[in-house]
């Protein structure tokens, strides 16, 4: 099952993708793709619906972030050894965690805004995880039971803010539009092995990232368990799991996003995104 949120910014409604690839409305079935609607019982009820009997949504409607009411976005840094190498950083002994502001969330086809005074806005294709049931001090063997689904994410990053403006990484990770997610939340039954998914990203038609989740340093069950020992994960919380090599900072010479660029990215079973880039205009 693939769940979406569609409509104008801040007014998104819940929907699902039917077998023909069309959006069907879930209004009246759930309030939003969030919170209690992500619990196993609720998801099972949605999966039992006859999608063809639900109201059809007009084609061309905007897609918003595929999860609403997000409490927190936990991100994992340097989770691919070849990305750590291109960043000139050691392979971590434990997961590097940081938080992205929920105000950075945007839809999969919304514009990326280069922040004011930015010099080094960069791209990162990633696999995301949606939590469906509360997780606290979870054993690794039980971690996947807490997953409501997976999604595609672009962990947009401002490298100067992140690395040379003192303090933690959050400065370069939480700017507005810096977390496009979607197009959909895909349930675990449609992902045979989340640890074997191809990911790719292109800028202006030139492919820069082509990797696989198989090469993660810290695997998904471990990450969920590990994070749950530092903070409670609640339904609707998101985890983004790191990026393979090929980010702009790692190119020779480095290459960062400019107004007019177009970023496209995708993942096996996760769909694809497309973002035009524009400068901040106040």
Word description of this protein:
- The chain has four helices and 18 strands.
- The protein has 282 residues and is mainly β.
- The chain is globular.
Question: Structural class of the secondary elements?
Answer: mainly beta
Number of domains: 1
Average pLDDT, rounded to a whole number, is 96
Q: Assign a percent range to the helix content.
A: 10-25%
The gross shape turns out to be globular
* CATH level-4 homologous superfamily: Fumarylacetoacetase-like, C-terminal domain
User: Strand order across the biggest sheet?
Assistant: 5-4-16-9-10
Radius of gyration: 18 Å
CATH level-two architecture:
Alpha-Beta Complex
Write the layout of secondary structure elements.
Layout: E1 2-6, E2 13-17, E3 23-25, H1 40-47, E4 73-77, H2 81-86, E5 96-100, E6 105-106, E7 112-114, E8 121-122, E9 125-131, E10 147-154, E11 157-158, H3 159-164, E12 179-180, E13 185-186, E14 198-203, E15 206-212, H4 220-228, E16 238-240, E17 262-267, E18 271-279
Parallel strand pairs: 4-16, 6-12, 7-18
Antiparallel strand pairs: 1-2, 1-13, 2-3, 4-5, 8-11, 9-10, 9-16, 14-15, 14-17, 17-18
List its salient traits.
mainly beta, Fumarylacetoacetate hydrolase, domain 2, about 30% strand
């Amino acid at each position: 099952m693939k769940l979406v949120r569609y409509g104008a910014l801040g007014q998104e409604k819940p929907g699902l993708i039917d077998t023909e690839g069309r959006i069907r409305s879930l209004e009246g079935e759930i309030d939003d793709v969030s919170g209690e609607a992500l619990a196993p019982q609720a998801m099972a009820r949605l999966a039992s619906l006859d999608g063809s009997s639900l109201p059809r949504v007009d084609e061309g409607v905007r897609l918003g972030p595929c999860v609403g009411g997000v409490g927190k976005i936990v991100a994992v840094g340097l989770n691919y050894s070849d990305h750590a190498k291109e960043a000139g950083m050691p392979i971590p002994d434990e997961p590097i965690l940081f938080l992205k502001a929920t105000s950075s969330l945007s839809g999969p086809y919304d514009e990326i805004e280069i922040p004011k005074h930015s010099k080094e806005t960069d791209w990162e294709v990633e696999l995301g995880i949606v939590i469906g049931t509360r997780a606290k001090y979870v054993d690794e063997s039980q971690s996947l039971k807490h997953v409501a689904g997976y999604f595609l994410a672009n962990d947009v990053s401002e490298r100067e803010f992140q690395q040379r403006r003192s303090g933690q990484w959050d400065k370069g990770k939480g700017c507005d539009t810096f977390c496009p997610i979607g197009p959909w939340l895909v349930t675990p039954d449609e992902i045979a092995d989340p640890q074997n998914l191809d990911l790719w990203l292109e800028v202006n038609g030139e492919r820069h990232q082509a990797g696989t989740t198989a090469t993660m340093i810290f695997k998904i069950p471990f990450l969920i368990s590990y994070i749950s020992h530092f903070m409670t994960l609640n339904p609707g919380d998101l985890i983004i799991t790191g990026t393979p090599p090929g980010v702009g900072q790692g190119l020779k010479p480095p290459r960062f996003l400019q107004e007019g660029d177009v970023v496209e990215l995708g993942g096996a079973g996760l769909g694809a995104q497309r973002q035009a880039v524009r400068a901040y205009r106040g």
